[in-house]
Every structure is written in C-alpha cells, then in structure tokens.
Write a structure and sequence with these properties.
The structure is a homodimer of 402-residue chains. In chain A, the strands form six sheets. In chain A, strands 1, 2, 3, 4, 5, 6, 7, 8, 13, 14, 16, 17 and 22 form a 13-stranded mixed beta sheet that branches. The first copy, chain A, has a five-stranded mixed beta sheet with strand order 9-26-25-20-21, with no helix packed on it. A two-stranded antiparallel ribbon of chain A has the order 10-11. Chain A has 402 residues and is an alpha+beta fold. Chain A is built from eight helices and 26 strands. Chain A has helices at residues 25-30, 50-54, 57-71, 82-85, 110-120, 215-221, 303-311, 339-342, and strands spanning 2-7, 10-18, 21-24, 86-88, 93-95, 103-106, 137-140, 145-147, 152-153, 156-160, 166-170, 174-175, 178-184, 203-210, 213-214, 235-237, 240-243, 251-252, 272-273, 276-282, 289-295, 322-324, 350-351, 357-358, 366-375, 378-390. Chain A is globular. Chain A folds into two domains: 2-95, Fumarylacetoacetase, N-terminal domain (SH3 type barrels); 103-390, Fumarylacetoacetase-like, C-terminal domain (Fumarylacetoacetate hydrolase, domain 2). At the A-B interface, strand 7, strand 10, strand 11, helix 6 and helix 7 of A face strand 7, strand 10, strand 11, helix 6 and helix 7 of B.
Chain lengths: 402, 402
C-alpha cells in the first residue's frame, strides 16, 4: 500500500507500507534503485500521491515488480542501509494521501438501503424503484475529507426536537458509515463516457472510508436535494491506498442482478471482491469491541458499474477523485455498517461490556474500520481508518442588534 | 470584473474588463503601475484567479483604487501604450476564471421551489417543511464546470420512457437554470463556522451561472440522495467575476422571512441585491429572444445566510469554491428561470417567432443569461454566460460477450 508520510524534519513523501515499517520511496529512488524505469524521482517527493498515481498502470507495474525484487526474502538489496530506507510506521506522521478533486458517494450496499427503507418507509417496498436499475449516488464534500486519526468534532446543526420544532444544537445522533473508497487513477475527458469493460483501468486503488453522518441534521435537511450538512463536517480516509491489482486474487462473481441492468452496465467478467470488513468501537477506558463484521461482497453494484454510470452522461473523473461505495451492510444484524442500523434507529441499544450501551456515538468514542482479504494462502491487509469523537464547541453566533 | 484571458502566443493571465477592452493586469503590473501596493506581479501571470483572490480584500481594495485612478477620464496614464495594455475582448480567448475546489448548489429561489412543488406534488404544500427554516443545498460536481461559450453536449442517461420502463438514451428534456454563482474569497478552517455578520467577507465576487439540467435523468435518479447525472454533465460559469463590493449600491432588504430563522441565520443588515437577470434563447437561424426576466431580489435566502449555513457544522470553504444560488425565478410566468417552469413541465410550449415552439432545448439552441444592475445613475454589468446545445453522440457501449 502507498501513502504519504513524514518524520522529524523530513518533508512529506511517498512511502510503501511494509509490515510495521514504511519504505521511503523518495530515498529508494534517489539511491538509484528505480534507475531504468523511466521515472522522475520528483514524483516521490510530493505531499500527495497524485503525481505518482498519474504515472499510469504500466509504470506502476514496473515499480511494483522492482519493489517485489528489492523486498523479496532472498534479496539483500538494502543490507547495511536498512535504517536509511525504512522507518517504523509508529514513528512517522501519516498524511491525507490524495489531493481529492471531487468526491462522490454511492449507495451500493443493498442491505443498508433496504434497512433504511424499512425504518423510514415501513409500509412500502424497502427499496425505491430506481435502486436495482442504476447505482444511486450523490456528490459529497471533498474539502472535509481527512486522514485516519484526525479527531472528529461533533457538529452543530439544525434538526427537529422531540416536539418537531427546528432547533440548532450539537447533533444528538452522530454515526459512522462503513465504506470503501476508490481512488481514481486515470482521467476521462468531459463528454467521454467510460465503457464498463475498461472501467477498472480508471481505479488506482482502494481505501477504507468512514462517512461520518449526523442523522438528525440529515433527516431534516435532505428533502428534496439529498444530504448536505449531515455529512460534510468530516469524512475519514485511511492513510494507505491499496493498488487495485492487489485485489486480483479476491475477485468474485457478484450478486445476481435482477432485473438485468441496461447494456451499458452489464459486466463481462466477475467484478466484485471478497474483502472482510470490521467495525470496532472503543469507548473511553475500555478495550475495543468488534460491533460489526461485513464484506465488500455485499455491494449490489460493482466498482466498474459505479465508474461507468458516473461517466455515462460525460462527467469527467480526474486523477485523485474518490468514489465511495456507500455503507456496506451485510444481511444479518451483526454485519450492519452503521449505528443507525445496528441500533435500529436508536430503538435497540447495543450492549457493550461493563453494562455500557450505545445507540449513537458519544463524545470520546473511537470508531475503527478495518479491512483484509484472504484466499488460498494470500493475505492482503487494508489497514484501518479511525477517528475519535470530540465534544461540540459552541460555534460563533451572530451579533444580533439589541 | 476580473477574468482570465489569452491571445496570440500570450499565455493566460489576469485581466480587467473595461468596456469592450480587457486591461492586461500582468503587463500593467510589469510596467510598474502597481508599485508600492505590495503585490507580487506573479499573481497576474496565472491561468486562474485563485492566487489573486487569495490576496484578500485589503489588497483588492488598494488595486481597485489604483485602477480607478489609472482608468479615470482625466488620467493619461496609458497614453501612448494603449495597444500594449489593452486588447479588444473580441480578439481574446476567455478561460474558466477559477480553479474550483468544491461547488455547492443552493435552492434559494423560492418561486422556483414553489413551482417545482406545484408541478410534482400537486396535492401538497408547494414547499417542503424545511424550506423556510434552512437554505436547502446539495454538493455538485466541480470538474464539469466550464466557461461561457463552451458547447454543451446533450447527455445520454437513464430515464423512464412513456411506459415507465428505464431506457438509456439522449436526454429528451434538456433545460437551463438561471443562477448566480458566488466565488469564495477567503477560507475558513475545518470546524470553524462563519458567523452571519462576517459571512460576506468570504465572498470575492459573483458570476452568472447556468446549471444545465437533464430533467428526465434527474427525475428517475434523484430519490433519495439528490441530483447526480441529471446535473453533472456540465454547468456554465461566466468568464468574468464581479467583485461583491461593486454591488454595494444595489443592496436591498430581502423578503420578509416568516417564520423568523433561527438566530444563527438572522441578519443585522440588508443582505440582498437588486440585480436584473435575463434569459435569451437563440434558435438556429433566428434572432435572440428574451424568454424570461427575473431578479436576484427573488432569492429567499441571502448570500450571507448561504455561507453561514454551509459552514454551521464546521465545513471548510476554500478560496475558489463556487456556491450557486439555485434557480432564480420571479413570481410571474414571464420571470421563471428554467424551461421546466416556463413550459410548465412541457405542457405549455413557449411560442417563439416564426411559429417555432419550445418545451425543452433542441440541439443547436443557445441559451444566454445576462445580468445588470442600475441605481441612481450607477450601472453595473455582469456580462453573460452562454452555451449552445450540441447533439448527443452515441457513447461507447460495453462489449458484451456473445
């Protein structure tokens, strides 16, 4: 996995996660280990991965091959200079790895969509009529995406009190959402849709993504134009981006799509991935507790379908854009990807150790999302994305004339 | 008004619109006319206004004062070098003036919201319950915002046919939306809301904005998360940005807001502006026809309220962000800001000259939005934003295995 790190007086640069260490790719490059690959070492001396990503898949493939040789058990490439090229991850500062141009959030977790439908439209079909015809999505706020570990300030906002009267105060129903983020690795021009059979070429890699949500604010504001302040106070991205190629061993046929999607959304090959996802909740003074276990296989729409649909009208994706999947809930209560679902909108509190309960997040709570994949002896770790809730700070108010 | 222009082999740079001419601020700066103002001339040699905008209002004020002196009727500052510092606008190429980080679209035109409600929820209150309590908005797509004059390709997309069956084809109901865009001139940090009495300090200037909309695509996709492909194929921004200070003579008390908004949204001074807005439709081979005349005074929510609400939960605005107002319709049929309203969802075709009619836009049609303000002998022109509809191109389709 690639990321951006700094340490001591060294400026942010590109690193490769290697166990508990980070391989400093700027140093590796300056020492000549990438000679002959046709790469400007300056791409590794950047505070974001965008220039590195923009090199494109053929170059990434050459770097990957070279790194595999350098890091193989038999190699003694870094003998004697281990401390020069490796740094312990625990000693490094990790940075938001991408300069994110635009951020889009899908709604591709069908069990999440069904659960929300059951809660809020109990007398209708849990899915809206469009759900199985197109990957529903909305544009989100890119500027408030922050790196794992950044504290999450509970937002103020407007919502209805118990008497259905609008009030302005700290959100009372702060939640997480278990998602994956796709990092776009190739740009398409405005007006040039991406065919589904080439869509995965536009993915550089994937990250863990927590789309923090203030349910009370969201519920009051979202009609008719969708979520706004209920989401835009913060979203957390993991510090490490896993190249999509690393997921090849975990490729799956997806769910049966019935009705069959329109031709522009039809796959010619398996386009889903078997990625195990965990949610851990840590409340102050306690050990972390796993409160949910889900899997990327529960997505109804594939990564490829998301990209092809997004660009179908000509919208231009750009290197560094993030497309998040939407909440990935499984089909059982222990696999739901949000507290909204786990507590069934606050009606079924989660019972934790020591008699603690939770419906939504309290100040001081930490949510950590983790991902990993196993198959036939191959293991890939997606790392984690974590955030701790800080108390709301009373915001500045206007000076109303007396 | 400020913008970005190029001509001949000269690279894009900052210009000031001055009648039919553009004053080349890079040259003016290099010739020393801004000496003593403490400005790095490099800000004028950029392909976007962002660095210039980031200088901040005190510096803009000094530049404005200096330019006023240089351009006054009595001045002979540019005598003998007129051709060096001025270029005819018609000979210049105009560029998208801003590198837009994030784009937000509000829904602040109350008559538009009421008209949409009357059309699509004929048996209910035309306004949804939240409308008068908060400025409803959604995040839009920044990457597909293009400069005035760029052709608009009719998008393909998914929508329901007359049998309510989803199909994929060129939008049949392509529309414009008459809006203003605010260009953000000052960043707030994540977690730091902007008070309403300081909100206007965050506005650099305003532009004309056309939020092209594919109504059929939008209608099928927008539940429950809002507009996506119905909007993100293109939005047009004018080439010139009018500093907000130029609107001072046109300041107005706004509409009575009843119910009174919550304190964080309460104004201490008039915060609306009297700006006349026109929509012209030009169909191939015909003269332009004015099809609507509206005014920014019809906005229910002020610019200041939009900014304060947007940041109320801590969302960080950044220099170069664009906040659009939403469609500004007046309270009479001749003042509606979209064809959706002007043709009442296609049921009342507009009759143009020569027997032509329109419900939505045809290929070849040009829509031009114009804005200007007059008050006590002062006139300010916002220029125009124009775009011509090009036919859909059949997009690449997936190769489905035989």
């Amino acid at each position: 996995m690639y990321g951006i790190f700094s340490y001591g007086i060294a400026s942010p640069r590109v690193g490769l996660k290697h166990g508990q260490f980070i391989l400093d790719l700027e140093i590796v490059s300056l020492l000549g280990y990438f000679n002959g690959l046709g790469i400007d070492p300056a791409v590794f001396a950047q505070p974001v991965l965008n220039d590195f990503i923009a090199l494109g898949k053929p170059v990434h493939q050459r770097i990957r091959q070279r790194l595999r040789e350098l890091l193989s058990a038999e190699s003694n490439s870094f003998e004697g200079i281990h401390d020069q090229v490796f740094i312990e991850e625990s000693r490094a500062q990790l940075h938001l790895p991408i300069r994110i141009g635009n951020y889009t959030d899908f709604y591709a977790g069908i069990h999440h969509a069904e659960n929300v439908g059951r809660m809020f439209r109990p007398n209708g079909d849990p899915l809206l009529p469009n759900y199985k015809h197109l990957p529903v999505a909305y544009h989100g706020r890119a500027s408030s995406i922050i790196v794992s570990g950044t504290p999450i300030r509970r937002p103020y906002g407007q919502y209805l009190d118990i008497d259905n009267k609008p009030v302005f105060g700290p959100s009372q129903t702060l939640d997480f959402e278990l998602e994956l983020g796709l990092v776009i690795g190739k740009s398409n021009s405005l007006g040039e849709p991406v065919r589904i059979d080439e869509a995965e070429e536009y993915i550089f890699g994937i990250t863990l993504f927590n789309d923090w949500s203030a349910r009370d604010i969201q519920r009051w504001e979202y009609q008719p134009l969708g979520p706004f302040l209920g989401k835009n106070f913060a979203s957390s991205l993991s510090a490490w981006v896993l190249p999509i190629e690393d997921l090849e061993p975990f490729r799956l046929e997806g769910p049966e799509q019935e009705p069959i999607p329109l031709p522009y959304l039809q796959h010619a090959r398996p386009s889903y991935f078997d990625i195990q996802l965990d949610v851990m909740l840590t409340i102050p003074g306690q050990e972390p507790v796993v409160i949910s276990q889900s899997n990327a296989r529960f997505l109804y729409w594939s990564f490829a379908q998301m990209i092809t649909h997004h660009t179908a009208g000509g919208c231009n994706l750009q290197v560094g854009d993030v497309l998040a999947t939407g909440t990935i809930s499984g089909n059982t209560p222990g696999s739901y990807g949000s507290l909204l679902e786990l507590s069934w909108n606050g009606t079924r509190p989660l019972h934790l150790e020591n008699g603690d309960t939770r419906t939504f997040l309290n100040d001081g709570d930490t949510v950590t999302l983790r991902g990993r994949a196993f198959s036939r002896g191959i293991r890939v770790d997606l790392g984690e994305v974590a955030g701790t809730i800080q108390p709301a700070i009373y915001p500045p108010v206007s000076r109303i004339p007396d």
